[in-house]
Design goal:
- Helices cover 10% and strands 44% of the residues.
- The protein is mainly beta.
- A hairpin with a 4-residue loop joins strand 2 and strand 3.
- The chain is rod-shaped.
- The longest helix has 20 residues.
Length: 253
């Protein structure tokens, strides 16, 4: 009995000694992956806390708050390259009365006129009014109609001279100078004169006006006019060459 008990104690003691001499199982966290055939080398575990506290003071960086946009979003347009931008054209010249595609069709003129009438029966210097209407068919050609009425002081037998000249015809203008528009016209029509003279009643006659003038453009609708004409008539069975001067204004429509 004692022999059997001693044998059991001896076996139990051998088992305990064998377990104490067996090496501990390797820790998977202490080894790094290596290729086959190479010796596994254990790498030390990193310790961030120990490295930071090695100097004897703990240091933890402060958390930074998330930055937010200080202002509203700003949208910007794509910049156009300077090479692609078209150069600005020159500023247009001021336009007065006429241009290539803009023609003033109607002109209404009104002014003071002076007529020097000479004939074998009497001579007189008459003053009065002259009005004209012109329709422009294009930039340089128009059709004009005008009427002049002039009065002179008394002559013999207490008679006043009254002279009426009217007619229509072509007008040619040069609208090239912006401010000044020179022009020429030829007006064919008639004339009437008074007073009654010894053996002669009031007479009618043909009349031809040859002359021209110039308009000074104040703006697009308003101009000043100077005009001079030779007025040929045929009163009393004779021919008279009279001279007429006019100064006035012109309105454009």
């Amino acid at each position: 009995m004692m022999k059997l008990f001693s044998t059991a104690l001896l076996v139990l003691g051998s088992v305990c000694v064998a377990q104490a001499q067996e090496p501990a199982a390797p820790d998977t966290n202490d080894k790094t992956n290596v290729l086959p055939g190479l010796v596994a080398v254990s790498a030390p575990k990193p310790s961030f806390v120990n490295s930071l506290t090695a100097s004897g003071a703990s240091y933890f960086p402060a958390a930074q708050p998330m930055k937010t946009l200080a202002g509203p979003f700003v949208t910007t347009a794509l910049a156009v390259p300077l090479e692609a931008a078209e150069p600005a054209g020159p500023s247009p010249k001021p336009k007065f009365l006429y241009s290539q595609n803009d023609i003033v069709r109607w002109e209404l003129g009104l002014g003071f006129t002076w007529v020097r009438f000479r004939s074998p029966v009497f001579n007189a210097s008459a003053v009065g009014l002259k009005t004209s209407v012109t329709y422009n068919t294009n930039e340089w050609f128009g059709i004009e109609g005008n009427v002049s009425g002039a009065f002179a002081p008394e002559i013999y037998n207490r008679e006043h001279v009254k002279l009426l000249v009217y007619g229509a015809g072509p007008k040619i203008a040069w609208h090239r100078y912006q401010r000044w528009d020179p022009w020429l016209h030829a007006i064919l029509g008639g004339a009437h004169e008074q007073p009654q003279t010894a053996g002669n009643a009031g007479r009618n006659s043909f009349a031809l006006q040859l002359g021209g003038g110039a308009d000074y453009n104040f703006n697009y609708r308003f101009s000043g006019r100077l005009e001079g004409d030779l007025v040929h008539t045929g009163f009393f069975g004779q021919n008279q060459n009279n001279f007429q001067l006019t100064a006035g204004v012109v309105m454009h429509f």
